[in-house]
Every structure is written in structure tokens, then in C-alpha cells.
Amino acid sequence: ETGVTQSPTHLIKTRGQQVTLRCSSQSGHNTVSWYQQALGQGPQFIFQYYREEENGRGNFPPRFSGLQFPNYSSELNVNALELDDSALYLCASSLDQGPGTGYTFGSGTRLTVV
Amino acid sequence: AQKVTQAQTEISVVEKEDVTLDCVYETRDTTYYLFWYKQPPSGELVFLIRRNSFDEQNEISGRYSWNFQKSTSSFNFTITASQVVDSAVYFCALHTNAGGTSYGKLTFGQGTILTVHP
Asked: Of B97, B98, B108, which has the smallest distance from its Cβ to A43's Cβ?
């Protein structure tokens, strides 16, 4: 049973650019959630994808978007990067949207916007 | 709105001391789950425990124990005989189904940095 893997591990982008972060979910998990963790803070919910559709979103602007693919992989896209987007981005996979089976988190992608 | 408060920003102890990490939560939902996660320097969140709102039994797992009290909306975590390997950031999190929708999300506290000195 594989866990959740995220790529890349680190990334440096310039303000205004676009970035794509990738996540490979745990086998059998049909739900993926993305979280943003600023330095010294707890993770904040960005959105959740269930069976390839966004079914919930936190307080993040539309320039944060995502995709989920049939093979359980997913992407987080951020357009028009701002300095405040610098953070650790965590992907979490789970089964059927709920907490019953728990969430498996990846190690994250650390994004730095300069 | 959901809220989780971890009042202790940093705790420093010497190995073999017991340490308790506090967590207080707010929610209007009657059904919810509470989690504790450990975040080592590598970044991933390591699952420690999940407790649903209907189960107030305390739990012990090795050196770890958890005290859930609905009356005070608290879910505290105690490490007995701490070890250097316990050094990490610990997060308490509340899981609810937002507004009765089908999806759920975790609301995290700010985290407590635990340092265990040899």
C-alpha cells in the first residue's frame, strides 16, 4: 500500500507566474483535499475533489484551482502568484469524503514566491 | 464557524518528563471528529488519533493518551516519559461537514512546538 506522494518538494517562482503542484493519492482513495500551511501556522483548507469534481472550497480566490484524474492523481494550480502564496502545500487523500478512514497526508511542496 | 485553539505555542521539556498539549475547539455541529497530528521537520502530517463526538472515552496508546471532554470542548494530549524523538509540531484538528454538505474539511489549530531535550 503506497502513501501520498507530492512533487516537486521545493519550488521557487516569481510573483505573477503560474504554478502546478502534483499529488499522487493513496491507492483506493477517491477523495483528495489540498491545504495551505503558511510558516508557523496550521494548515488551511483550500478545496476538496471527489470523483474528479470539486465538491467543497475554503476561503481561497478562484486563481487557486485543481484537477483530479481517474488514476487518483491530482493537481493544484495557482495563477498570478502573490508573495503571500509562499507556503507549504499539503495534499491529503481519503476515502469517500469523510473522516471515517482518516486522511493520509503527503510531505508537501514548499513554494517560495519572490 | 469552526475554530481550534492550541494556547501553547511552544513547550520545552527534558527527556522522561510528562507533557500535556492542550486543545480547545468550537463548533455548532453535533457530529464531528477530532484529530491529533504530528508534523516532523520533513513536513508530512502523521496521524495520531481520531475521536468522534459521541465517544468520550479516554484513550491510551503506549506513551500517548488523550482526554476528550465535551463539557469543556477540550481534547488534550499527554505524552508520558517524553523522548527526544517526540520533538515535533503537534496539531489538533476538528473535522466537520461544512453546513450539512457532503464534503468535510479539517480545521487546524496553530500548532504546538514540542522540544524534548536529552
From this structure: B108
C-alpha cell at A29: 482513495
* CB contact at 8 A, A77 and A64: yes
Q: Specify burial of residue A94 (Cβ count, 10 A radius: 0-12, 13-18, 19+).
A: buried
Compare all CA atoms of chain B with the CA of A36 and give the residue at the minimum distance.
B108
Does the pLDDT of residue B34 top 90, yes or no?
Answer: yes
A36-92 pLDDT, tens digit per residue, is: 999 999 999 999 998 889 988 999 999 999 999 988 899 999 999 999 999 999 999
A41: which chain B residues are within 8 Å (Cβ-Cβ)?
Answer: 110-111
Give, in order, the Cα–Cα distances in Å from B36 to each of A59, A82, B8, B65, B67. Answer: 23, 31, 15, 11, 12
φ, ψ (nearest 5 deg) of residue A82: -115, 160
Residues of A in contact with B46 (CB under 8 A): 105
**Four-CA torsion B35, A37, A108, B92, nearest 10 degrees:** -10
